[in-house]
Amino acid sequence: MQRGYVLDMQSTLSCLSSVLRTRPRRMAQSSDSVECFERHALLLQAPALVARYQTGDPEFIDAVMAWLTHAEATLKKYSMPRVAAVSALKARLLAAQNGVVESQLFAVADTSRARRKTHAAIAALMFNQCQEIIGSVYETLSEQKEDALKYLRQIVILLV
Fold first, then answer.
1. What are the contacts of 139-148 at 24+ separation with CB within 8 A?
2. CB–CB of 100/108 below 8 Å?
3. Pair 27, 156: CB distance under 8 Å
4. pTM
5. What angle do CA 54, 47, 78 make, to 5 degrees?
6. What does the pLDDT read at residue 23?
7. Do residues 134 and 42 touch, judged by C-beta distance below 8 A?
8. Is 127 buried (19+), middle (13-18) or exposed (0-12) by CB count in 10 A?
9. At 100, is the secondary structure helix, strand, or coil?
């Protein structure tokens, strides 16, 4: 009985090692890779948003709000705790749009144009902070993935 178990275990392990050697592409398409890809895609949108701010695009604030919403949804989808920080940034941007501005950061003038510029500057700051959050999450998960792959390779070598 014990001997049969050992043979089954050896055949299972050899099957596992051959699958791992022959299917690296399938491993690369796991949900972790999809998750990293989604965060990477968010980060790749940064230059376009910065260009919109630089050119004074009146839709910049709405674009940042959409980007924050997408970032929040992505982090929430994968149960990442940093979603709370992104939600807080989104709330600060909403408050700025409603006229509540942190006075220690900005001196708000009475003109409509100055208020729009202030709101765009706040949106740019919120975007920057969120981009840093997404970037740090991406880097951490990439490092963890590389560590896991390193250990997986070592296990496969030991099994073969």
1. 141/32, 141/35, 141/36, 141/39, 142/36, 145/32, 145/33, 145/36
2. no
3. no
4. 0.64
5. 130
6. 40
7. yes
8. buried
9. coil
DSSP annotation of 93: H
Q: Which of 78, 63, 84, 73 is nearest to 144 (CA)?
A: 78
Q: How many Cα atoms within 13 Å fall on the side-chain side of residue 80? A: 24
pLDDT in tens, 29-60: 445 556 667 777 888 888 999 999 999 999 99
Q: 89, 65 in Cβ contact below 8 A?
A: no
Residue 131 corresponds to which tokens in the numbers above?
């981009």
Q: Kindly state the tokens that stand for 69.
A: 């919403």
Measure the CA–CA gap between 115 and 70, rounded to whole angstroms.
Answer: 26
